[in-house]
Write a structure and sequence with these properties.
Blueprint lengths: L8 H5 L19 E3 H11 L3 E3 L7 E3 L9 E3 L2 E2 L1 H9 L3 E3 L1 H6 L1
């Protein structure tokens, strides 16, 4: 803004022109993630051995919490630690297209 320090400068300060609310890059995308504790509560409520997180709208599985029984979890991506915990409990992680093939 050329000449922005004129008599209308205080009006400009009242707006969010200077990024008062922050900047979000246009290429960033939010990933909806679920933790293992959420998966175990979903499995307890439904009583099924297969939990389809992709159908529930989740894209990634994170490792927060514990899993106590063997489950087949359908999800697009997962963290390494979540994979370790699921395999230690006797379960497996499957991508959405792979479940129908087996």
């Amino acid at each position: 803004m050329a000449g922005g320090h004129k008599h209308k400068w205080t009006k400009l300060l009242k707006t969010d022109y200077f990024g008062k609310n922050g900047f979000k890059p246009p290429t960033s995308a939010e990933v909806k993630a679920a933790n293992l504790i959420q998966v175990s509560t979903i499995a307890e409520k439904t009583g099924q051995e297969v939990v389809d997180l992709a159908a529930l709208g989740y894209e990634k599985l994170l490792a927060a919490g514990k899993i106590s029984r063997s489950l087949t979890i359908v999800v697009d991506s997962w963290s390494e630690k979540a994979a370790e915990k699921v395999k230690a409990a006797g379960g497996r992680l499957v991508k959405p297209g792979e479940l129908t093939a087996t």
